From TrEMBL:
The chain crosses the membrane at residues 90-110, 122-143, 149-169, 204-233, 245-263, 313-333, 353-380, 400-419. The keyword Translocase does not apply. Keywords: Membrane, Transmembrane, Transmembrane helix. The keyword Transmembrane helix applies. This is Integral membrane protein. It comes from Arthrobacter gallicola. InterPro entries: DUF6350.
């Protein structure tokens, strides 16, 4: 079955799918490269770089393109630059806001390829697209390296496929409208052939996973609001740092773009801070509601929004993941898929026992899902600048996941238990055992 009908003109041979995939994602690579080259060219034209060679500008643009795709850069500092001896480090702090540029370009390409493909032929377009992007990344890694920056060709070819591949698949799925139209596999039909108990268990787990996604989404959203509030309250200090830097119009624009590119990273740091796990800005530093210890920081205006001084109300930030868990538990109640509670009611005829046990189990599942996503967010938002003490930047993924999982789980239990009162109705009781057995 064809996803969408391609218009054809008499005597016109349609472009092969693999070639169209190469063209679509090659176009995305070119556009994302222009996003990097244009601001760097402005800085270069304003004498912002000591090396005025065109080749050095091209290499720097390639390095920046690879970094925003998540490729780590191995830096080498000659003796006398950072210390008395030659030192090196790994630059791995990814500006996630800029990574969204190739992601959305690939998302657009995925939609266009889905419109041009049959269900059983989409793999040809995707293979051509991803193969082209891998070649572009490998070429960028090969030509962008020098004596100061070395880049793995394997990482240059494979790592950019992560944001590009995700964008392609999500865009194609969005255009197709269903997985069956995209890959030809009908999951609904496969589920219908399973037993009723399996369908109930699957519905329960799937609803709990979605509730966990609701919880982590709410936690990230509330953390973003907290970040905005911190920026607004410290706006005067940020402006003062801009004035002291006196970077000029072009330098100020590039500095602002770089900070905007790091906003998703800052949201992940804020979530870790609000959970109590905290984050670090350099070796030996700690920034959390429980303790704040920092050393000298670079003159980055947004860092003026860091919490400091007397923080009597910092502990209130710990309620952010809990509030997100309340929303997740309430959402699960409205979904009405607590089949584990129904199963317990069949096996054990003691409501005073089955209700708390099923609710606690539900909170645990939702918390684990939210914690895993929080761990992933902490991992991709952290990294290293590869220089001096700034080899450790961002939250610690494991502790962030543990703290968020525990707090969201507590909130989910509260939200599910208090949901009926929030909606001014009685808590739904599991169906009678005879009725459930009759449905089986």
């Amino acid at each position: 079955m064809k996803l969408f009908k391609r218009p054809k003109k008499p005597g016109v041979v349609p472009m092969p799918l693999w070639l169209q995939g190469m063209f679509e994602l090659g176009q995305a690579a070119v556009l994302s490269t222009l996003v990097v080259i244009l601001p760097l060219t402005g800085v270069w034209a304003a004498n912002g770089f000591s090396d005025r060679d065109y080749a050095s500008l091209a290499r720097l643009s390639g390095q920046a393109w690879l970094l925003l795709h998540g490729v780590p850069l191995s830096l080498t500092f000659p003796a006398g630059t950072v210390g008395p001896e030659e030192t090196g480090g790994l630059l791995s702090l990814i500006p996630l806001g800029l990574t969204l540029i190739p992601f959305f370009l690939a998302w657009r390409a995925g939609r266009r390829l889905a419109r041009a493909s049959y269900t059983d032929q989409l793999w040809q377009a995707l293979l051509g697209a991803l193969g082209t992007y891998a070649l572009v990344g490998t070429a960028a890694a090969y030509f962008s390296g020098n004596e100061d920056v070395s880049i793995s060709l394997v990482a240059g070819g494979l790592v950019p496929l992560i944001p590009a591949g995700l964008g392609l698949i999500i865009g194609a799925r969005r255009e197709a409208g269903s997985w069956v139209r995209l890959i030809g596999v009908d999951l609904t039909d496969w589920i219908a052939r399973t037993s009723q108990h399996s369908r109930w268990a699957g519905s329960y787990l799937w609803a709990a996973v979605r509730a966990g996604v609701v919880g982590i989404s709410a936690a990230l959203g509330l953390s973003a609001l907290l970040l905005v509030a911190a920026v607004v309250l410290n706006w005067a200090q940020m402006v003062a740092i801009y004035e002291r830097l006196d970077a000029g119009i072009i330098g100020g624009v590039v500095l602002t773009v770089a900070q905007l590119g790091l906003i998703p990273n800052f949201v992940g740091w804020t979530l870790s801070w609000a959970s109590g796990a905290g984050f670090v800005l350099g070796t030996g530093s700690t920034i959390s509601p429980l303790e704040t210890t920092v050393g000298p920081l670079p003159a980055l205006p947004v860092l003026a929004a860091l919490p400091g001084g007397q923080m009597e109300f910092a502990y209130a930030a710990l309620l952010i993941p809990v509030a997100a868990g309340v929303l997740a538990g309430w959402w699960f109640l409205r979904e009405g898929e607590n089949h584990f509670d129904e199963w317990l009611a069949i096996k054990i005829h003691a409501r005073w026992f089955t209700a708390p046990v099923s609710t606690i189990a539900l909170g645990g599942i939702i918390g684990i899902v939210a914690g895993l996503f929080a761990m992933a967010a902490a991992w991709i938002s952290s990294g290293s600048l590869g220089i001096g003490r700034f080899t450790e930047i961002g939250p610690e993924p494991l502790w962030t996941g543990i703290w968020v999982a525990a707090e969201v789980a507590v909130g989910a239990v509260i939200g599910y238990a208090a949901g009926p009162w929030l909606e001014h109705e009685k808590r739904p009781r599991p169906a009678a055992s005879d009725d459930i057995l009759d449905r089986v």
